[in-house]
Amino acid sequence: MDSFRYKNGRLFAENVSLEKLAQRYGTPLYVYSLNHVLENFRALDRAFKGMDHLICFSMKVNSNIALLAAMAREGSGFDIVSGGELYRLRRAGADMSKVVFAGVGKSESEIREGIQAGIFMFNIESWPEALRIDRIAGSMGKQVKVDFRINPDVDAKTHAYISTGNKENKFGLPIGIADELFKNASRLKNIKVTGIHLHIGSQITQIGPFVQAARKAVGLVRRLRALGHDIQTVNMGGGIGIVYDRESPVSATQFAAALKKVFQGEGIKLLLEPGRYMAGNAGVLVTKVEYVKESRSKDFVIVDAAMNDLIRPMLYGAFHAIAPLRKSSKGRLRKVDVVGPICESGDFFAKDRKMRLPAEGELLAIHSAGAYGFVMASNYNSRGRAAEILVDGSKVIVARKRELYADLVRGESVPAYLRPRKGRR
Ligand code: LLP
Questions:
Q1: Bridge-partner residues for 192, per DSSP?
Q2: Cα dihedral sign for 280, 282, 287, 292?
Q3: Top mutation candidate among 101, 210, 273, 314 for ligand 1, by most atoms within 8 Å of CB
Q4: How far does the centroid of ligand 1 lie from the alpha carbon of residue 265, in Å?
Q5: Is 313 touching ligand 1 by the criterion CB < 6 Å?
Q6: Can you spell out the DSSP letters for 235-286?
Q7: What's the number of CA atoms in the CB half-sphere (13 Å) around residue 267?
Q8: Ligand 1 atom with least separation from CA of 103
Q9: CA spacing 20 to 30 A to 42: which of 74, 82, 340, 424?
């Protein structure tokens, strides 16, 4: 689905002009297409028809509660990694029985909150964590469902920072110790190990690594069952890649067909935790050109968004397409750097990008910003975080207000004796 399209030379999100939104709500501005996200969810859900499955949106990619509520209404489950994410889901009114809790460092209170909320299951990442969950569940008089995250040692062929399934990573437990692990865990009374979990990385564009990991999962399930363990679920994690530039990622149907083939007849429920696939291309960051700085060696387009709004280019050298909100054929193509106002050389959105030199005040859209965009924003340089707008057809929802100066110092205090005295220096 292409929710961001030019109509009469103006870029729209569904039926709403981005220029109008920028005028009304200011910039930098995150704009999401709700129907784009919902369509992606439906497409993947449909593709797995005929196989017992549950899609748990990985909410770390975009955790705005209006979006979460709409997804929950659509029937989505959720993959969470913190107490804060659990809190957001409650505020969104999500069904807790469709929530899976992952992460290598779950704290005591986060575990307690998860049990109290009645989530579907915990993905355990270490033996000490298994002991901790067992102890806490026991103290609450509960038995909780868990699976073990297994590291299948598969090369996801993606950026090193977002590759998680080879043995060098901190994630999961080595597949080689699974037999022993499940045996030891079967002695813990307050947890019930009913599955395995794998997540090999993010922004994976080829089907090969997924199939490789799935085959390893099936092999493991069969072995564990033969050893007498009651394995009901396989969680294949997230990782489906999207188009940022010229990638050609797998489609929902290809992905589902390949996994169905591997899991056919195995009698398991398949859990998935896609994040980027769902929301990545469903969002843009709208920004205004503050200055155009031309020099002999290089031209800089200085915009009002910065690395504090979208850190992916700086952190991963990630490519994000940048396009004007008003289509124009005027002006020569130039190689420019698109940069933000923050005092860091790494504060850029594009380097040596071939584009028409925009004019001061012109509005641009930074594409594919719906995943790992706003959620990774900070207040660096005391910049308030941008507003988030959710577009649903012709409806405009202010899903999050722009932060004001007062928001920047909320929670901070100055004791009287530290205050500068008037009239003295
Ligand atoms: N499940 C687990 C256990 C994960 O660790 C992740 C992402 C996902 C699911 C969702 O993966 P996805 O479907 O979105 O690929 N900030 C980085 C990406 C970090 C990925 C962290 N884990 C970026 O901006 O590229």
A1: 145
A2: positive
A3: 273
A4: 29
A5: no
A6: E----B---SSS--PPPHHHHHHHHHHHHTTS--EEEE---HHHHGGGEEEE
A7: 7
A8: 3
A9: 82
Structure tokens at 346: 């790494």
**Separation between Cα atoms, residue 197 and residue 172, nearest integer Å:** 8
- As a residue count, the chain comes to 425
pTM of the entire predicted model: 0.96
Catalytic pick among 2, 295, 343, 382: 343
CB of 274 shorter than 6 A to ligand 1: yes
* Phi/psi of residue 323, nearest 5 degrees: -140, 150
Report residue 173 as tokens. Answer: 């437990």
Q: How far apart are CA 120 and CA 158, in angstroms?
A: 30
Q: Give the list of residues 6+ apart from residue 126 with CB closer than 8 angstroms, or none.
A: 104, 173
Distance CA 214, CA 233 (A): 12
What's the pLDDT tens digit per position in 291-344?
Answer: 999 988 889 999 999 999 999 999 999 999 999 999 987 778 899 999 999 999
Q: Is 343 a catalytic residue?
A: yes
What separation in Å is there between the alpha carbon of 162 and the centre of ligand 1? 7
Tokens of 263: 């899991």
- Whether 276 lines ligand 1, by a CB cut-off of 6 Å, is yes
